[in-house]
Design a protein that fits this description.
By secondary structure, this protein is an alpha/beta fold. The protein has a domain of 152 residues: Isopropylmalate Dehydrogenase (3-Layer(aba) Sandwich), CATH 3.40.718. The chain is built from 11 helices and 13 strands. The chain has an 11-stranded mixed β-sheet with strand order 5-4-3-6-13-12-7-8-11-9-10, sandwiched between helices. Helix 3 links the parallel strand 4 and strand 5. The longest helix has 22 residues. It is globular and about 60 Å long.
Length: 319
């Protein structure tokens, strides 16, 4: 077992991320447009992911800044392609263009604001829109939970509608399939586990379960509403008399809104010493979305998850 140090204290790797990273050993490195990698953390993550042959970076941004960072911190980028762009906004646009030209199969956030990058992604004429709603998924390594735990949506959709939640959920299910889980268990979270007309998220949970029964959501076992304790603790579900194939064994947690998801994820990160690898789905390609607070292990896990999803897209499209 490995011990990492984060800004919230020491955390012990459980091996869940290491197994994800190990799965990339058998696949080719994925060409990746890295938008504005102009600090030690973002450039270092791209360099390390390349060293492990997870990605092949194309560095997009002010060339003099990227080279200055590489020189300062001793990163060898001599073999990388550099695409000069004068500032972060231009770097985001150029990185998206490289994906549209099929020169890159992944998009990776560097040292720019998330809104700058996603703003270019969602542009109608020059972006990377698909038929799906774009959404964020955390793949969390929680030391006290027995397997990787996905939480969605924590960063993109503020107050999603029922229709948007359908897309958010399907995005996460498709990711689970790409990571080798053919039948993930989904818990649709609310404050309680019974239908209560005064709590709209319980009604949405019931509707999503019926949508799964009727084939509008596919590839998973879906149950809800479930309170958080019932979703992750079989004992809590047993005490409350809840009979469910998902309770206590969830792979995916669909949260009611961004605020609830963000608070839940940060609770797990800072109080349970969890790591949170994050990617954005629903665009033409996966988007590696890391935080400045992420440790190296988490950043590499984000790259590995995106690379495995990219390979699943290749298999689906036959490219």
């Amino acid at each position: 077992m490995t011990t990492q140090t984060t800004e919230c204290g020491p955390t012990t790797g459980s091996g869940k991320y290491e197994r994800l990273i190990e799965r990339t050993r058998g696949i080719p490195a994925i060409p990746t447009a890295v938008a504005h990698p102009c600090d030690e953390v973002s450039l270092g993550a791209a360099v390390e992911a390349e060293r492990l042959e997870i990605i092949t970076p194309i560095l997009v941004g002010p060339e003099h800044k990227i080279r200055a960072v590489a020189d300062k911190f001793g990163f060898d980028i001599s073999a990388y392609e550099l695409v000069d762009a004068p500032h972060s906004q231009a770097a985001a646009a150029k990185a998206v263009e490289l994906v549209r030209l099929t020169r890159a199969e992944l998009l990776m956030k560097g040292s720019l604001h998330t809104d700058e990058l996603l703003g270019e992604v969602v542009k109608r004429d020059t972006g990377l829109r698909s038929a799906r709603r774009i959404s964020h998924v955390f793949i969390m390594d929680v030391p006290t939970y027995h397997k990787p735990l996905m939480i969605t949506d924590v960063a993109v959709n503020i107050a999603p509608t029922l229709e948007e939640k359908r897309d958010i959920l399907q995005n996460a299910i498709d990711l689970a399939h790409a990571l080798g889980n053919e039948r993930p268990k989904v818990a649709i979270l609310s404050a309680v586990e019974t239908i209560n007309p005064k709590i709209p998220t319980t009604l949405e949970a019931a509707a999503l379960c019926k949508m799964a029964e009727r084939g509008q959501i596919t590839g998973a076992i879906v149950d809800g509403p479930l309170a958080f304790d019932n979703a992750i603790s079989a004992e809590a579900a047993r005490i409350k008399g809840i009979v469910s194939p998902v309770a206590g064994d969830a792979d995916i947690l669909l949260v009611p809104d961004l605020e609830a998801g963000n608070m839940l994820a940060k609770n797990l990160i800072f109080l349970s010493r969890a790591d949170a690898a994050g990617i954005v789905l629903g665009a033409r390609v996966p988007i590696i979305l890391t935080s400045r607070a992420d440790n190296e292990r988490t950043r590499l896990a984000s790259c590995a998850v995106a690379a495995l999803y990219a390979m699943a897209l290749r298999a689906r499209t036959g490219v």
